[in-house]
Amino acid sequence: VTLCKEFFFCGQEPFVADEYIERLAWRTPGGGSRGGEAFDPKRLLEEFVNHIQELQVMDERIQRKVEKLEQQCQKEAKEFAKKVQELQKSNQVAFQHFQELDEHISYVATKVCHLGDQLEGVNTPRQRAVEAQKLMKYFNEFLDGELKSDVFTNSEKIKEAADIIQKLHLIAQELPFDSLMGFCCYPLSSPGKYHDLECQLIQEFTSAQRRGEISRMREVAAVLLHFKGYSHCVDVYIKQCQEGAFLRNDVFEDAAILCQRVNKQVGEIFSNPETVLAKLIQNIFEVKLQSYVKDQLEEHRKSDAEQYLKNLYDLYTRTANLSSKLMEFNLGTDKQTFLSKLIKAIFISYLENYIEVEIGYLKSRSAMILQRYYDSKNHQKRSIGTGGIQDLKERLRQRTNLPLGPSIDTHGETFLSQEVVVNLLQETKQAFERCHRLSDPSDLPKNAFRIFSMLVEFLCTEHIDYALETGLAGIPSSDSKNANLYFLDVVHQANTIFHLFDKQFNDHLMPLISSSPKLSECLQKKKDIIEQMEVKLDMGIDTLNCMIGQMKHILAAEQKKTDFKPEDENNVLIQYTNACVKVCGYVRKQVEKIRNSMDGKNVDTVLMELGVRFHRLIYEHLQQYSYSCMGGMLAICDVAEYRKCAKDFKIALVLQLFDTLHALCNLLVVAPDNLKQVCSGEQLANLDKNILHSFVQLRVDYRSARLARHFS
């Protein structure tokens, strides 16, 4: 059995039957080939049989042991269940005892409360009687005029003395003076004794504040809370807080620092710190700030509007910033309204007529800026046309004389100044900022519109519009020689200036009027300005006549009849004529100038008009000459160069016109036999036959019978 246990329980791994048999056979002599022994099946069988018997014996023993343990477990389970039942019974008994004890405690507590109420009912009258007795004792001392009690003679008991005086004073005030008791109590009801003690307490509070004794200040303030002079105590505290607080030049920063310091301290002294702090702030605004603001503004109010407005804006902004800092403190329920009223009280006399001062200053300042500019140019402004947009359109339609009468020489001056514009816009920007800050919210859109109207009057009308009118008057006639087209410079500068004007409109005016009916008025006013300027720019289209006139002068001066009918047909060395070179150079400069002067669709519109007129000029110019074969080739080269110049316009119609003109010039050199074929080509097929015939007639060989026969 021992050997069986050894085999059965060896190792910590789970039991495996095959391994168990192997180990048993390995341990049995003759059970294997170990040590060279021969295999002995009988002995192995015998060993197996014996081992099986041992296993059976071991199984029986284990089974008996398991049964014994099961019986023992059942017995212990029954004992445990019995013990649990006994504990449950004991717990129930204890719970019942606890309930009884709780009821008893409640009963006793009720009795104690009742007894306490009875004792309080007895003790309260007794305490009142004792207090009344003490007051009567002190009352007698006041009647005798000799204060002997320690509470009146000991300065350290001023709190107790104040309480007694306060009570006696209230009692004395309730008694009628015509009664005997009231007459006897008159010394207590009169201000003398009461106010003497009150003044003594305030003096004690003042001394404690100077010594920096917060606890003593709190104690005295608590006593004075029941006296009429409590507000005087607060006034003394506020007054002493400000001593030495405003020594620097920046009164606003000093005020913020003072309020920050008092805010930390006032809660430790007074029972109502928010009221005391609010009273301090009110005192600062009504005394210090109001006096400072008045000194700063009254100095320049009538003598220097610019400095007055700057100071008003700066002072109001700094006051509002101080108010924002004070919003962090506890000043009661509606501190926003409280601070707003304080600010309004300081500035109301200045804000009532602010916009009138603003408009008056802006008007005089803008007029001065413009006049100073014109004076620097030694220019005396002329009156300009006052007609509206419809009048301008009518003048444009009829192409009447320009409003300034005959053409004037501006000597290349555009009468537009970037510096003037920047100064006007800067002044208006500052006016918008002041308007935003100083105007009442209900008046803000209206005031902003008035400032905008000033900008329109002086920038758009008095400066830009005047420059356009002057530029229109300065446009030379189409037959002028060496005409300088300064109107395009005016257009260029006016366009740049208006972009700056539009930017200020969007950046500074729109936020002030975006949610008001004034928005539509401002947009309409701006639209009218734009339309009026565009009409005048359209009137400046007469500049194109001058350009065409200049081209005519160049062609007349440079183009020779022999250019297209050279004496020696075999000795032509040039690729295109000198007139063509100069005209193309002039046109390219004007195209570049137009692109620099205008933007948007205006560029294409003006270039299309110029391109069409340029084409008509070249077309009519070519009709004036007769062309030999080599002259026709030179004309084709000239037109090809004109066509290259036309590409700079970047207008499809203009390029198409010059393509057609180039095709027409081919009729000047094509062989007579091919004339009909060329005329029926893609570019010439849709042209009127008279136009084709007019070009063919320009050939020197047109009258030959052969050419006339072929063309007919």
Automatic annotation (TrEMBL):
Signal peptide: none
GO cellular component: exocyst
Organism: Origma solitaria
Keyword entries, A-Z: Coiled coil, Exocytosis, Transport
Keyword DNA damage: no
Keyword DNA-binding belongs to the record: no
One BP annotation, GO: exocytosis
Name of the protein described by the UniProt record: Exocyst complex component 5
Domain Exocyst complex component Sec10 N-terminal positions: 41-149
InterPro entries from the UniProt entry: Sec10-like, Sec10_HB, Sec10_N
Residue ranges occupied by any Exocyst complex component Sec10-like alpha-helical bundle domain in the UniProt entry: 160-711
UniProt family annotation: Belongs to the SEC10 family.
Coiled coil location: 52-90
Classification via Pfam families: Sec10_HB, Sec10_N
